[in-house]
Amino acid sequence: MKLILLFLSGSLFGFGLTLSGMLDPSKVQAFLNITQKWDPSLAFVMIGGILTTSTGYYFILKRSSPLYDANFHIPVIKHIDKKLIIGSVLFGIGWGLGGLCPGPAVAILGYSFFPAIIFMIAMLIGLFIGKRFINF
Q1: Residue 100's closest CA among 21, 13, 41, 8?
Q2: Tally of structural domains, the chain
Q3: Residues spanned by the domain of 50
Q4: pTM of the entire structure?
Q5: Any residues with CB less than 8 A from the CB of 116 and at least 6 apart, and which?
Q6: Along the 136 residues of the chain, how does pLDDT read in single tens digits?
Q7: What gap in Å lies between CA 17 and CA 11, rounded to an integer?
Q8: Cα–Cα distance for residue pair 52/98, rounded to 1 Å
């Protein structure tokens, strides 16, 4: 049952990305480019995601434990440090240059394989370098 729910939630996420047009890197880049023809549609997708997640957290966290785990894994670190800032900046730069983040990159592998696989290889190399060589 756990695998079925994982598959369904991932499929729903991918369907939402497709429906909203967020699998098109130029749409993301048009949102980030405020000096030319700005496209605010990504802001509406973000607001929808925040509202959906907030509602889900409200109801789910009332339970004593998740459905398929012994306890909730809520982040406990609440301060902003150098690692968070640098990681956020690097993610934002990659997102702006590529027009993709990891979720949409996986979602477009089926129909736009070569741009997506190049992005994913670069992302994995960046993760490896960050984990192996960068100590904050």
Answers
A1: 21
A2: 1
A3: 2-133
A4: 0.71
A5: 100, 105, 106, 108, 109
A6: 889 988 998 888 888 888 888 888 888 889 988 888 899 999 999 999 999 999 988 998 999 988 888 898 888 888 998 888 988 898 888 888 888 888 888 888 877 778 788 888 988 888 888 788 776 5
A7: 10
A8: 26
